[in-house]
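Why show two proteins at once? Because comparison is the fastest way to build intuition. When a single record is shown, students tend to memorize it. When two are placed side by side, the eye starts asking what differs. So, the first record is below.
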Amino acid sequence: MYLLAGILDFFTSLNGIFYTLAYVVGGIPFGLLYGKYLGGVDIRQVGSGSIGATNVLRALKESNPKIAKKIAILTMLSDALKGVVIIMIAKAFGVSFEAQWMMALLAVVGHCFSPFLKLEGGKGVATCVGVVAVFLPLEAILGLVVWFVVGKLLKISSLASLFGVICGIGFSFFLHPEIPHITTHTPLVLMLLLILYKHIPNIIRLIQRKEQKVI
């Protein structure tokens, strides 16, 4: 009884409500929804099977090339903003910075292990960039610059994403040796580890030189 009461108290508290919202909203598979309802394709059955923008682009290029890039950009923006929206609402309710960072992490977890897809999901990169931009905009911008440059030069989305996230979070150790309000880099490191874990198949293909390019 005491355990049940404690669980109920947590999920009905302000922080508990926003933690749940961050995970659930983070888990909304926008790429899958856009691919299905705007492009008429189940992107899980094409390419890597990922619900991210790269696979949306790859899937729709085959069936509906005129809208492929637009839907891919829409997917990227939606994935980036879904965590941001919940954090900004939490700010308005006076939720602490520590709780906001936890929400940022949970939004990325939700994207990677979506409650709507039996705990399957995307790679978490766009959602990570979005939530990090709320607290550390310079690091997010630098990470995007690295992602863009590597993507343009090498045309390999996974490699560009990995370099962008690693560099963006790496820059935080130099630009903000102590993260404002929480002093620790733990949430950022956990996001990085999660993204690296989700990219293991890509990393294996990169080592084997079998990773596909985005043309």
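Second record. Ask yourself what differs from the first in the token line.
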Amino acid sequence: MREANAVGSRGKAAERDTLECWGGVDLGGTKIEAVVVDRAGTVLGKMRQPTPADGEPGDVVRAIHDALEGAAHAAGLTSRQLLGVGVGAPGAVNANEGTLGHVSNVGRGWSTPYPVAGDLGARVGRPVVLGNDVQVAVAAEYRLGAGRAFRSLLGVWWGTGVGGGLVLDGVPWRGRGAAGEVGHMVVKPGGARCGCGRRGCLEAYAGRASMERRAHKAVRQGETTILFDLMRKKGRTRLTSSIWARALAQEDALATWLFGRAVRMLGAGLASAINLLDVEAVVLGGGLGTRLGPEFAGRIHEAMRPHIFVPERQPPVRVAELGELSGAIGAALLAQPPMK
């Protein structure tokens, strides 16, 4: 069954025609979030729908287009009235070529670069730009949300995987294209297998997909949990953040243990990043980070403390203020030309 949520102001098409509007899409492992924003980043319309669980790259692009059309319609527009579209995506983004490759958590996953910008651009008839999903979300939080008060920050997007993004002295830092990948910092040499194929990555312990695989393994070994009962009752095929939240609220032993381990590993990994970069703040976002952040930001902060080299200057952990829309808003901002 397809689920979608479209919100916006219909019946104002004439008003919208006078506005400069851009579309933004946050492509995630479980959901696609699309927004339409104005120059100031104000959301005029939005839509969410599930990511095709078994989709090929072309199927995923079609779903992105559907979500974008829904957001535009909610804003009283069509996608062809947008001035441009940005897409924030996980994996290896080649912004110059408009391709996306090495994607492990979306659809069936794909390694060969796929021309997402060209495919989507042909559907909407507008220019499309690609960016790393977490980097664009962090840029949005830096400009409009929880990072406004800081000149340097580390964004940690805790969801299907664990992504990261950096702003250093007011400048987004992308390195050679893969800076900020805190999820693939090794927190346990030779440890659990990560979705990237390596062992011991932070994501192998804290990513939602990795925790779900570990939960399945525990059930096969005879452990009991309400996680999969909740999943079936909600008609889901994956353990979403809301299911984890409900299991934690009911003190499910397996969910509690998995999240306790995730917090310990997050503490060690993020503290190591702070020791290297000495940024002013950590912003916690993503599906799990947004839903569980108010409770878990403090726990992660405490788990970092034993590993911080300068404990009296430990940076705060702030929850993303733009919530689950930060990635889509950041993607839309990416599509905007610089202010003159």
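One difference worth noting in the second protein: The two ends are 46 Å apart (CA to CA).
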